[in-house]
Design brief:
The structure holds two protein chains of two kinds. By secondary structure, chain A is of the alpha/beta class. Chain A is built from 18 helices and 23 strands. Chain A folds into two domains: 180 residues, 3-Layer(aba) Sandwich (Rossmann fold); 237 residues, 3-Layer(aba) Sandwich (Rossmann fold). In chain A, 34% of the residues lie in helices and 24% in strands. In chain A, a hairpin with a 2-residue loop joins strand 12 and strand 13. By secondary structure, chain B is mainly α. The chains are: A alpha/beta, B mainly alpha. Chains A and B meet through helix 2, strand 9 and helix 4 of A and helix 1, helix 7, helix 8, helix 9 and helix 13 of B.
């Protein structure tokens, strides 16, 4: 790709971006949110058409215009949110659009055998006959990769494939990526986890503001340089945690149990304190948070806010008692993607916007401005649908929405998943500031450096049980990993910067 | 033969079949005539048109769309066929089917262009064409009705034809249409694309499925079935006026939903839609046998529909839990 331009309306997404990829290499595409990485991938995927510039595949010009055209040219894309058909079987998902035929009918037996063989090759036990509904994101990705393999794709694009994976799943994915490389395929991947990038990639291309900043062999560059190139400045302080006075108990959870997900969970969170729930993905952390907030049911146990019992299964009651939950999946659970930034931010703060009879839209505008400035959210118009914002700005919007309700107790579930280093540090600063204002904070995170850097206390969960608790002073990566895995290796060390 | 949706789909049609047999038996207990050849024939005759239309719109509902214009299309098709036959005494049943099919395809193509081509919401588009087509019937019919003497005798005798002493000709066609459509939906690429499009429309675009073509053709198919439904209408009633089949589109949608074709798209089968149509009709027959006032009919239909959607959601929730725990077991 050479000198590729792409504009969306007035916004310029790409401005003379270059990218060159060779067969048999793993190529990392880095940059902050909004740098244009996803746009590059989408042009190759055939979702967008470039306005200017040249793209060549081997000797031929790349034919843009439709996803089908890209597939025909041997390009397979694995999106950040897997795009599976949940009602269809796994075998069918692998072969969608290219079902094997026997005569005029689809040969389901063959499709299922092939799918089973591919899953096996990828080292995952999956029943090809089951529907995709109910699979974890990691499993869904495996299905997507099996699909790419079955297409015989030469170029495989992965948009933040590891963002939602646990450590062992990341390991598994890396093994798969290496075997793709030895099969002489080109793998392009976007990631914000720089340790992974350095562990697996052969080449690194860094983008900033829609243009390519550098392309280099991984062996000839280093972490500090890449970060500098991404951010355009030196990052001094990644975990801006300050000491805050710890006040009274705000949240008290006692013997909370939902046999399917977690058992006998008890802990307290005090005003000004950040407590982290650590553990592997699937250990029940998010489920505990959802049960506290009332989105999910629990069977036994109590949740108290400032010594008052919270109604079971009632988010309305939770919100009335000033609890806020910033969910793990911002697109599905946190935002109304088609609604404007202003509507999203003011969504939970109607009381503040009441006029005499109707909502006061002036107040809504004012509120949006306040939070835009506080969190430096970047958007053109207040009414722009959040769908158009970059991932980092979306995450800030969800945060703004809940911070605007001025909660006493704030739950943040994976607050920095899939956002870039610079924004990450901003989000951390915001969380710290909230604690400084005397809010009690429960943070769920899969990234150990984040847990260690931000939390006053760390509670570790394993398979639905609360297995350990460390103070900020006692906690080390090793201790947490050990508690979370009973000695099993392979916890992701997350993003070290 | 490979079963695609092991846990949910098969049990779905089977359990519906069991409910159907149960309600047929129950109705038979109240009114023994119901189980005789005559009774069965009546049931199948009265179900044929709705069943045919249900087969027609099942793929559309599976694609997360809806077609409300079908009942109006039946009316238009029936009236125009009768008009042609009245003016051309030489016409036989063959011309009736051809005219009906063409009218249906035209209406379906209009719907398809608007929904697939302009990407307008099908609910609104077909609500519009529902009124447009019905309006067209009012205008062209100009209050003229047609009766048996204007219809081709070959058509009427075909409508009376019974196979194996219980199977009326129209219902034989329904069964053939079910088999072909069910096979098509399960074993061909376009058929599977319908499920994919209904399951995740965005992903369907991303993997390069021919969304326009599939959607367009599904509406043409539904229109075609409605056009043939016009022929069925004439075979059954041997007369037609401008209000023919008025308001029956919702009965067809109800049959599909009761038959397990999820209104949210992505799942359900043509066989289920057929069983749904039969079930609604059987229960109606049972209520009539019980001497329940005909005025209660629509209220009870509505109640059934809500029960069905409730059962559907419960089953979906249960199978989702089952799928989750299956994966957990597989991991361990």
């Amino acid at each position: 790709m050479q000198g590729v331009d792409k504009r969306f309306g007035g916004a310029i997404a790409l401005k003379g971006a270059d990218l060159s990829i060779r067969a048999g290499e793993i190529h990392a595409l880095l940059g902050e949110n909004g740098a244009g990485k996803s746009t590059m991938l989408k042009i190759l995927a055939g979702v967008h058409v470039n306005d200017d510039g040249k793209i060549r595949l081997g000797q031929n010009d790349f034919i843009t215009g439709s996803p089908q055209a890209s597939i025909n040219q041997g390009i397979a894309v694995i999106y950040q949110e897997p795009s599976l058909f949940l009602d269809l079987s796994l075998a069918e998902n692998v072969f969608i659009g290219r079902q094997p035929k026997k005569g005029i009918a689809i040969d389901w037996d063959f499709a299922e055998q092939e799918a089973a063989r591919l899953f096996n090759e990828l080292g995952v036990q999956l029943d090809p006959k089951r529907p995709a509904r109910g699979l974890s994101i990691a499993d869904q990705q495996v299905v997507e990769i099996a699909k790419a393999l079955s297409m015989n794709a030469n170029i495989i694009l992965m948009d933040e494939p590891t963002a939602a994976l646990s450590a062992s799943e990341v390991e598994r994915l890396m093994t798969v990526m290496r075997s793709l490389r030895s099969a002489n395929k080109a793998v392009i991947f976007v990631s914000h986890r720089l340790d992974e990038v350095f562990a697996i990639s052969d080449h690194i291309t860094v983008m900033r503001d829609g243009a390519t900043v550098s392309e280099s062999k991984t062996s000839t560059t280093d972490l500090q340089r890449v970060i500098r190139e991404m951010v355009g400045r030196e990052l001094t302080e990644l975990y801006p945690k300050n000491e805050h006075p710890i006040g009274d108990v705000v949240l008290e959870v006692q013997a909370l149990t939902n046999p399917a997900y977690f058992r006998n969970i008890s802990f307290k969170v005090r005003a000004g304190e950040i407590v982290a729930l650590a553990g592997l993905v699937g250990s029940g952390r998010s489920e505990v948070a959802r049960a506290i907030f009332g989105v999910d049911q629990y069977e036994t146990g109590t949740v108290k806010i400032k010594n008052i019992n919270l109604k079971k299964g009632s988010p309305v009651d939770a919100m009335a008692k000033r609890i806020a939950l910033v969910p793990e999946d911002r697109r599905q659970q946190g935002l109304f993607m088609a609604a404007g930034v202003n509507r999203n931010i003011s969504m939970e703060s109607f009381d503040q916007l009441k006029g005499k009879v109707f909502l006061n839209f002036k107040k809504e505008r004012a509120l949006t401005d306040i939070w835009r400035d506080k969190l430096s959210i970047k958007f053109v118009n207040q009414s722009d649908p959040v769908d158009r914002l970059s991932g980092g700005n979306q995450q800030k919007t969800v945060l703004a929405k809940w911070l605007a309700t001025d909660p006493d107790f704030l739950i943040v579930d994976e607050p920095t998943r899939g956002i870039d280093v610079g924004t990450k540090s901003e989000v951390h600063r915001l969380i710290d500031k909230a604690a400084g204002e005397g809010k009690a904070i429960l943070m769920i995170s899969s990234e150990l450096p984040e847990v260690l850097g931000m939390a006053d206390r760390i509670i570790v969960m394993r398979e639905g049980h609360q297995v350990a608790e460390f103070s900020r002073k006692e906690a080390t990566q090793e201790k947490i990993i050990e508690a979370a895995t009973t000695g099993k290796k392979g916890w992701s060390l997350g993003n070290h910067i | 033969m490979a079963t695609i949706f092991k846990s949910r789909q098969i049990s779905r049609e089977t359990s519906l079949g069991i409910i159907l047999i149960f309600s047929v038996g129950l109705t038979g207990l109240i009114n023994p005539r119901f189980l005789t050849g005559d009774g069965t024939r009546d049931l199948l005759t009265s179900t044929a048109t709705v069943a045919l239309l249900a087969i027609g719109i099942a793929p559309i509902i599976i694609m997360r769309h809806i077609d409300l214009s079908i009942a109006s299309t039946v009316g238009l098709s029936a009236w125009v066929i009768a008009d042609f036959c009245a003016k051309n005494p030489g016409f036989t049943w063959v011309q009736c089917f051809i005219i009906g099919g063409i009218i249906g395809i035209l209406v379906g193509a209009l719907n398809g262009l608007l929904v697939a081509g302009l990407r307008l919401p099908s609910l609104v588009v077909t609500l519009g064409t529902l009124y447009i087509v019905r309006g067209a019937v009012y205008v062209v019919s100009n209050s003229v009705d047609y009766n048996a003497q204007e219809m081709p005798p070959s058509l009427l005798s075909l409508g009376q034809k019974v196979f194996f002493s219980v199977l009326p000709f129209p219902f034989l066609l329904v069964i053939i249409a079910t088999i072909i459509t069910a096979w098509y939906m399960k074993f061909t690429k376009p058929g599977r694309d319908c499920y994919a499009i209904g399951s995740n429309p965005n992903a369907a675009d991303l993997v390069g499925l021919k969304v326009f073509r599939r959607t367009f053709l599904a509406f043409v198919f539904s229109g075609f079935m409605a056009g043939i439904g016009g022929v069925f209408y004439l075979m059954r009633f041997a007369q037609v006026d401008s209000t023919a089949f008025y308001g029956q589109e919702l009965a067809v949608v109800a049959a599909c939903v009761i038959g397990g074709v999820t209104i949210l798209g992505g799942s359900g089968t043509v066989v289920g839609a057929l069983i749904g149509a039969l079930l609604v009709q059987t229960i109606q027959g049972g209520l009539a046998a019980l001497g329940v006032d005909a005025f209660w009919k629509s209220a009870i239909n509505g109640f059934l529909l809500i029960v069905a959607i409730f059962a559907d959601r419960r089953l979906a929730a249960r199978s989702e839990r089952a799928l989750l725990s299956q994966r957990i077991r597989e991991r361990e």
